[in-house]
Design a protein that fits this description.
Elements (H helix, E strand, L loop, with lengths): L1 H20 L9 H7 L5 E2 L2 E2 L12 H13 L25 E5 L5 E5 L2 E5 L32 E5 L10 H7 L3 E7 L2 H7 L7 E4 L4 E4 L2 E6 L19 E5 L4 E6 L6 H9 L2 E7 L14 H10 L2 E7 L13 H13 L2 E2 L7 E3 L11 H4 L1
Parallel strand pairs: 5-6, 6-7, 7-8, 12-13, 13-14, 14-15
Antiparallel strand pairs: 1-2, 3-4, 3-16, 4-5, 9-10, 10-11, 11-12
Helix pairs in contact: 6-7, 7-8
């Protein structure tokens, strides 16, 4: 019995040490930072909280059993059967007054805005996992632009610290060509552990406005959660983003369940020339933290968006639905509600404010 107890204790100690030492897990905010968080309305009992009561998922026995059954059964349509078309926009970036958006798949976006080059949630790795050789791999074998081909980046903006948005390997490749990292509270601790100076990191709470290089960034609420290991659930904040230039306003929903924050954002900052709205990786068992496509369309209307690009799909399988289900459902809902929607191919450049937007159904050719 003593030997067994010793083995169990040893395994626990080894696991805790691994969690602390493996760099991909990042780093929790310092005690000094946490002291400042204690004064915030969206921080309680040592954790960040949503505006309204939100559980990430029911953890009862029946839910766990249903997930296990679906995982074992699998879904043959959860990923493309053929190759996804990729456009290579080239590596020439003409800095002008136009706002251009290039989607990398999932929620990774390159935004050229009034002469500035920004990256939103640049998860450019192969798999959204702490162990890149494990998990659902990227559908496309290549990216439209490799990190090494990117020019100097004015700012990288992160929405939260989940692996499908904040990727350790991508950060390592990007960090020497980025002027500024703009993140929600606490996420800077991960970046600092990975070698980025605190002077290049700006942390924001909900509704904080930050001016940088002629643009205004606003960290706005989302309904989600955070964490990269078993030891740091909700120790960092999650958010959506408003980006305002002289001629254009962009809204990026990031990951979020549907909630009243969308109308609040629309009332305060809308209308938006373009919205980048999550529409995939949903399930009734975690409906509080990821929208169904019909809710995506409603959220776009709530924030007073003019044109919407659906994101958070077409790169990884992180749920049980068919990989094309998000875009087909959001297209149907958008048509019913009279919402203008653009469906660019991965790598296809979208010019905000143009008379025509990409609207092809390219995913049907890959299925």
């Amino acid at each position: 019995m003593l030997v067994l107890i010793s083995v169990i204790v040893g395994v626990i100690i080894a696991a805790v040490l691994f969690m602390k030492l493996y760099p991909t897990f990042g780093q929790k905010p310092s005690k000094e930072k946490v002291k400042t968080y204690n004064k915030l309305e969206n921080f309680a009992n040592g954790k960040f909280v949503n505006q309204i009561t939100t559980s990430s998922m029911d953890n009862n026995f029946s839910t766990t059993l249903s997930l296990l059954k679906e995982y074992i059964k699998g879904n043959p349509n959860s990923k493309p059967h053929g190759s996804i078309p990729i456009e290579r926009p080239g590596t020439a970036f003409h800095k002008d007054d136009k706002t251009k958006i290039t989607w990398f798949g999932h929620s990774a976006l390159l935004l050229e805005m009034e002469g500035k080059i920004l990256l939103l949630d640049p998860m450019l790795g192969k798999s959204p996992s702490p162990f890149p050789f494990v998990g659902s791999g990227r559908y496309s074998k290549v990216l439209p632009i490799e990190i090494e081909e990117l020019p100097l980046i004015d700012a990288v903006i992160y929405s939260h610290d989940h692996y499908d948005h904040l990727d350790y390997e991508s950060v390592l490749k990007l960090k020497d060509k980025v002027n500024q990292f703009i993140v929600p509270l606490g996420v800077g601790s991960h970046l600092e552990r990975w070698g980025i100076e605190s002077t290049r990191i700006k942390e924001c709470n909900w509704w904080d406005e930050f001016e940088f290089s002629g643009l205004t960034f606003v960290s706005t609420p989302a309904r989600h959660f955070s964490g990269r290991s078993l030891l740091d659930r909700n120790s960092t904040l999650w958010c959506s983003w408003v980006i305002i230039g002289q001629h254009t306003k962009i809204y990026y929903s990031a990951d979020s369940g549907y909630g009243p924050h969308f109308k609040q954002i629309g009332q305060k900052y809308g209308p938006f020339d373009m919205t980048l709205m999550e529409c995939g990786q949903y399930d009734k068992r975690w409906a509080n933290i990821h929208m169904f496509p019909e809710q995506t369309v409603q959220a776009h209307l709530d924030v007073k968006g003019k044109v919407m690009i659906p994101v958070h799909w077409a790169a990884f399988t992180l749920s049980f639905h068919d990989w094309t289900d998000p875009i087909e459902r959001v297209l149907k809902a958008a048509k019913e509600r009279g919402v203008a929607i653009s469906t660019p191919k991965i790598g296809e450049k979208v010019i905000v404010g143009s008379s025509e937007y990409p609207t092809s159904t390219w995913w049907r050719l890959a299925d």
